[in-house]
Amino acid sequence: MSRFLGATVTDWKYVTGFRADKSTITITRRPVLPDTRSARHRMLAELFSDGKALQDVTVSVDSYAYDGTEASYRIHYKPTLATGMEANRHKLSEALLAALGTHESGQLWRVDWAPEKPIITLSLRKPLATMVMHSLKIPAADLPVPQLDERGIARRQQMPWPGSDPSVPGQRLHVPYASCETDTGVVDAYWNISDDSSAPHMLVVGPTGGGKTVLLTTVITELTLRGVPVIGVDPKRIELHQFLGYPGVPAIVFEPLRAAEFIYALWREMHARTKYMQTQRLKARNMPLLVAVLDEFFILSAAWTQLAKSGTDEEKEVIKRCNPLGRIGELVALARSAGIRLAVGVQRPDAHLFGRDSGSVRDNFQTRAALARLSSDGAYMMWGETTVGRDIDAKIRGRATVSDPSGDPALAQVWFTPTIDDHPAARSDLSAEELHAVDSLRPSRDTPVYCFSAELAQFIADEQHLITTMADDVREPVAVSASSVTSLIDHISDAIPAGALEEGMNIILGLDDEPDRTGTVLTVETVRKVARDSDGTVTEEGLVRVGVSVESTGRRPEVLILEYSGLDTVFLAAVDLAAAA
Ligand SMILES: Nc1ncnc2c1ncn2[C@@H]1O[C@H](COP(=O)(O)OP(=O)(O)OP(=O)(O)O)[C@@H](O)[C@H]1O
Fold it and tell me: Which residues are ATP-binding (predicted)?
């Protein structure tokens, strides 16, 4: 062992040289300095040594944790066409994260691509909590509510909110619902419903059990605490019923036909408000806010389509008069300036089911949350990129991709609000912590809806009457088997355009055959084959042939061919019904 410039050298490299002009052979000894890089540093350098993924790579340590472990790295590389492509960057980031695993401290790594320079930084991030209990830190009675005159008009709508920055206008109306990761750390994700919001309506996507109802519950509780009333629509009947009688929630609508009447009343309200604002010289910011939450929107819109096609004459007339799908389009585009906001929950992002003009309708839902691992098409529809939100850990309940405060997609943990139903049967299921959370969230004041139209006022009054008489209709259960199912809404899990049907899906048939649906026997059939127009595109005119095999007396099952246009909606069976079929 010897020393070279102060370093201990255990190995030497010998280089031989020959100079013919001087007839000399030189033998030079160079020290091989020991590799002092950590195993992780070496691994990172070796990851790119073949020059395939990145070229001319140098890896350096950027910072150390207090215990001396390496806490961040910088990777310099030679920029190429491939390194500029989002999909390649995403793949490489995933490979780096997989190679790095978990840091000694238990923290996870994050990968950041510098926007302008060919530098990747690897740094540590605190893992997002896997569960965030949603509760209020101060008594609800101490929260400020907007000062409104008897018409509901606010001269100064923007009240300070505890913890808010008074220099940021409208923060009272930043409705938080999740913790999300951004470059500056974990922050609250919120829906900005103030009049200066560039994302006035909210879209929530999540499959059954994905946490959509929890997210909407979190949002509704935050809205009512802020003195913003909510009317909910829940065609599945079991998601938002907990809000019946909740302060600030004057109505929850369950029947699709009543939901159509509600959309009509809301549309009339929007026009009445606009007229009032014009005559009284009021601005959007003066108007009292009202939020409509439409859960399971595709089921609702498919039910409307079915009613329009094969309902009773009376039902058809209601759908025609209310034209809910057309009026929703108008509401989405115009309601914001009349103080009305929409939150819509759907099972999957779909390009077609918002109607013909889907693109622009979807564009108005700029506050977005996706509670599931998205397909690449779904990711593109939600975030404009095929790779965003695709690696959500499905095992963590409430894990989502949401719009962060700057509007970009970010990984998030949705705050958990247990059921807020104050029925003793619901409360008996809650733990002490959950009871504390829901009690803290309950507003101490009931916020009214200021109705500028006779239609909305009448609608709410009728709904409240219906709810009080609902108990009269309740009867003791009778056992009914799948083959005698009579009610549609209770047994469907989702509705999708025929163009999106795939082999193996269980669909409900028999709805169109019998105009009087009460007493109709529904059947559940499994899709065996789907044939689309030759180029595979789904258009309203496009024909979709679907083959289902049905029982027959012969040896082989008969194949029934159903024909749909690409935008016809088809109901999917709920799991229990499909299993029974
Ligand atoms: N943010 C969350 N944090 C913790 N647990 C959650 C969260 N969201 C949902 N869960 C858990 O997942 C369960 C299902 O959630 P939720 O009822 O919201 O699903 P959903 O999407 O509404 O399903 P469906 O479409 O069938 O109504 C909840 O009862 C709860 O236990």
Answer: 206-213
